[in-house]
Amino acid sequence: MLYICKKIQPVDNKIWLSSPHLGGGEQKYVQEAFDSNWVAPLGPNVNGFEEDLGKYLQDNVFVGALSSGTAALHLGLILLGVERGDEVICQSMTFSASANPIMYLGATPVFVDSESDTWNMCPVSLEEAIKDCIVKGKKPKAIIAVHLYGMPFKAYEIREIADKYEIPILEDAAEALGSTYKGQKCGTIGDIGVLSFNGNKIITTSGGGAIVTRSKELKDKAVFLSTQARDNAPHYQHSEVGYNYRMSNICAGIGRGQMEVLDHHVGLRRAMHSFYETYFKNIENVIVFSEPRDDFYSNHWLSCIVMDSYESREKLRLLLESENIESRPLWKPMHLQPVFEMFPYYGGNISETLFQKGLCLPSGSNLSERDKERITAVFNDFFRVS
Q1: Is pLDDT at 40 greater than 50 in this prediction?
Q2: Which CATH number goes with the domain that contains 313?
Q3: Domain co-membership, 114 together with 40
Q4: What is the dihedral of CA 302, 307, 311, 313, to 10 degrees?
């Protein structure tokens, strides 16, 4: 029997939306952890990573390294006194990790729409939500404001409203390490800040996060709760419920190496954003998500565009997918999620429209010129550019 073999064209490696990018120095710190047998959730790398982050953020903050950004949000709400039955205002357009910890505590999320400049919490809708909650007899216990895709929220306006009603801000800077608002580092703008080092973030510890506080006492309380709330006794004694949320010394070693290349990675992400700005400059009906004013400096963790319709967005996403290039719709707002749709929502349809028409594009700091050429080829085909 005669078989005719058809030559199969090699498939290019997948271009990811945001893949881990090691700098080379991580292995040194990890090896030190192995050599010294510090492989538990404590040790020199944990202390060093917290110090590195504190120096980078400046502003006299205290940092606690944890197992995830979600853990930091959970502990942040506890430190702000949120309890069962309380109400917490949360930005609707965000990843579910911003809202889930509210539910962990038995509190009620109150979702707020975005504004069109930064895609973050709308100050007008925020105040409307606060007023309505107060009229109903329950002033919100905290405000979770997010720096979406690395873009700082309108911190001055949000802070003015928070202070007016004496409600603390839990700042979700999971996507915004390296971003600034009026020169102030994201993560230090709220009453308590949260960072994430998940595998797709600007730097990674293969998972992990951090809580940023204004006092050593709050940081120490967070660390205490994150290590099972063990009382100071020779035996195991617990007067409070604790959590297993501390970062390991090995993961912190990866983080120390990543801190050495953080600013370089921010520069590379911003360069990818400029690449998209340049390409779409003369393309009609496509808007590149960019800083509205000089006060805002985004790390451009993810570069995003808004197209003229859902249909156009999906056609481009599927064309990229057919060429082994990952892209993703913008976050689906929390108030549209089945698990949260029964909770209060304030605002219009800005976040919903962005979700329908918006697309996140490959943004990693490790994308090559060949990767850019492949992305450009798909764009040229889609927009019929010669």
Answers
A1: yes
A2: 3.90.1150.10
A3: yes
A4: -20
